[in-house]
């Protein structure tokens, strides 16, 4: 928990007065939101776009001014978490089910800072099941097509019911043993009818901030993205 906190908080050092900031989703970003709230009390002035209903309500709690995404031309900086980060900074995201809005907001952002604890750094993506957002209609068929890509598939549940995203869709978690060619896999998955998007984020991170168990924070800044 402490390593998530120090990573999440550190990212706030990159936020400047007047910025439009994208707010990711998850337990690491929670600490970003809480630190942003403190800085706002001390006079920082920003506007923010949330990537989930959960983040929207936390932002309100922390006194962060939100604007609708539809009113935004571009976002200066987005801070978000990840489930896995490989040495090329390809990411798996969507553990919290917010991958679609997270990807749209990341796409509109000049910079994407990823905050994570050390356990998220992996040699190859794939240990964490890859979340795929699919439409409800025909999702059983879409799952069959996904399993044809060589993974085992599980519809995500919330208790006994299917998990429903903020966009009204389902999530299918796809377990590949190892994702060797993430770029190709990203395209293959999104080519399947019924798939809306998947949790692979390729060449999107501009910086990765990692909280370590010994209390230090590592900042990696050699990615290929904008
Ligand atoms: O992609 C996400 C939500 O859709 C999260 O950023 C990801 O699951 C990491 O979450 P956490 O910081 O709680 O470990």
Automatic annotation (TrEMBL):
Keywords: Isomerase. SUPFAM superfamilies: D-ribose-5-phosphate isomerase (RpiA), lid domain, NagB/RpiA/CoA transferase-like. It is an enzyme of class 5 (isomerase). Pathway: Carbohydrate degradation; pentose phosphate pathway; D-ribose 5-phosphate from D-ribulose 5-phosphate (non-oxidative stage): step 1/1. It comes from the Bacteria. One of its GO terms (biological process) is D-ribose metabolic process. It holds the Pfam family Rib_5-P_isom_A. The active site is at residue 102. It catalyses: aldehydo-D-ribose 5-phosphate = D-ribulose 5-phosphate. Substrate binds at residues 25-28, 80-83, 93-96, 120. One of its GO terms (cellular component) is cytosol. Its EC number is 5.3.1.6. One of its GO terms (molecular function) is ribose-5-phosphate isomerase activity. Belongs to the ribose 5-phosphate isomerase family. Catalyzes the reversible conversion of ribose-5-phosphate to ribulose 5-phosphate. Homodimer. HAMAP family: Rib_5P_isom_A. This is Ribose-5-phosphate isomerase A.
């Amino acid at each position: 928990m402490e390593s998530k906190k120090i990573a999440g908080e550190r990212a706030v050092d990159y936020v400047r007065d007047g910025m439009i900031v994208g707010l990711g989703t998850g337990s690491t970003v929670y600490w970003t939101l809480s630190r942003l709230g403190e800085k706002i009390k001390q006079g920082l002035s920003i506007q923010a776009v949330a990537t989930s209903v959960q983040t929207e309500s936390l932002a309100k709690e922390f006194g962060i001014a939100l604007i609708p995404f539809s009113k935004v031309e571009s976002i200066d900086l987005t801070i978000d978490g990840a489930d896995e980060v490989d040495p090329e900074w390809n990411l798996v995201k969507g553990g919290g089910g917010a991958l679609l809005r997270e990807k749209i907001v990341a796409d509109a952002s000049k910079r994407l800072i990823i905050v994570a604890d050390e356990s998220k750094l992996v040699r190859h993506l794939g240990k964490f099941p890859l979340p795929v957002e699919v439409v409800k209609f025909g999702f059983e068929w879409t799952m069959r097509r996904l399993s044809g890509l060589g993974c085992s598939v599980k519809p995500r549940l919330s208790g006994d019911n299917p998990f429903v995203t903020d966009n009204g869709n389902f999530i299918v978690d796809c377990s590949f043993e190892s994702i060797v060619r993430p770029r190709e896999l990203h395209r293959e998955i999104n080519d399947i009818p019924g798939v809306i998007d998947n949790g692979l984020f390729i060449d999107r991170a501009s910086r990765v901030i990692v909280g370590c168990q010994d209390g230090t924070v590592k900042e990696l800044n050699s990615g290929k993205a904008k």
